[in-house]
Amino acid sequence: MTTDTSPPAHGAPTNPAPGAPKRRGLGRRLPKGFKFGVAKTKRPSLRLHVLDGLSECPSCGFFQQVPRLQPGQVADCKRCHGQIGRRRTNPPVSTPLAFCLASAVLYFVAITHSLLTFDLYGRTRTVSLLTGPGELWREGWGPVGVLVLLATVVIPPIVIGLMLAILTAASRPKLPRWAPGLMRRYERLRPWSMIEVYMLGVFVAYTKLIDLAHIEVGVAVYALAGLMLTMAATDSTLDVERVWHKRPVARFARRADGTRVIISTVDASEMVLPPARRIVSCTSCGLVCAADYDIPQERVLGNCPRCQAKVRRRKPQGVLRCMLLTGSAVILYIPANLYPVMTIIQVGRGGGHTILAGVRELYEAHMLPLALLVFFASITVPVLKIVGLTMMAWCTWRGSATRLIDRGRLFRIIDAIGRWSMIDVFMISILVAIVHLGRLANISAEPGVFAFASVVVLTIFAADCFDPRLMWDAAGMNGVLLAKNATGPKTTQGGGRQSVLPSATESVGA
Ligand SMILES: [Zn+2]
Ligand SMILES: [Zn+2]
Fold this sequence. Notes:
- The chain is α+β, with helices and mostly antiparallel strands.
- Helix content is about 45%, strand content about 15%.
- Strand 2 and strand 3 form a beta hairpin.
- It starts with about 45 loop residues before the first strand and ends with a strand.
- One zinc ion binds next to loops.
């Protein structure tokens, strides 16, 4: 029998000698699943600091301290004057919830009742919200029909349902884990619910038809008008920041490579801010985090510790994707204007109508305001979007620093008005659905409508791909600037502009 007297391997526990007194209180119980052997070198834990009180301007990428806003106050970016924050005066949940419930009822009325009734020499035809997309599909313009169906029938109830779920979640003291995902989906889908644009399409179609035949306005039109107002009221009374504040920040998070990260919250006003290349903000909930290392510009860092959205400093390939989509829109814009968008046959006579011809027709019928509206929505807006996005992408590519504030403002306008070009597409879907009386009177869609709808969709996606902060990055304005004595954002209340910040606060460029 031999006794092993060699020293134990490093890290391996030693067995006490027989008869030796038991050690009390010094040893720790081994964790479950512990394997004896050589101890592995422990990797240092990565840390991410949530900078409380710091916000990034979504327009220019300027990080600045924003004080807790009082009801009715608005915080504007100090550098580009874009809006950073806003506090509503109404109760945060009950008011938008009331509007949202009203939206649900009005949508149900709109989808179950008739939109318009067309009466020509005793031959009548009644249409609903579903008739237009169905007729476009039947005529072989399936993608346009699907687009109209999504924007007017499918997405609005989804958006209303999401908002009802979000507000129900927000009525709890703590926002549940599933709510942030719904919030992100709501923000992505909301621009594609186009009830207000559809209403204008109905109005233009009605004025075009009123000289041709007797038109009876259905209950659905009044319901849609109400729905347009209640959906807008839901958005304007929803205090997104107060909803996000109900969601606690997790103590741990995972990076994209799977590494565990420890989260700690620090007050941004009580620390020296790290270099901007180490700060990132969540575009979904606005949480600002600082790392101990440089954060890649376009790669996903990981999930946000508050809302679980993927966090990256900038949208990937923003300029390239914007240029490609805008270029495709330019190519399609030519057939969209050259080819007729619809053919109108009245008592066996008629022919194709281009977009411009439709505007001229309204002008010749002495409907100048309507002609101007259609001209603005169908000609000015697409041109403005194409020229504006091309110019912004080109300037960013070149690294230009001229008129950055104006360019930022133009981007916000383009982003907001892009959907209004759909007026013509909606109007055609209504006319195609309602004027369907053979050789007596018939309106059918033509290739121009497909090209035009594609231009609208492509430019919406192009604006969505473009990250306006890239303009400031390219101009060298978002480097590692540490403006120690820069003043905070401007805040406004009740129309007057007043600063509620101390004169010297720390701000940092992204
Ligand atoms: Zn800004
Ligand atoms: Zn987030």
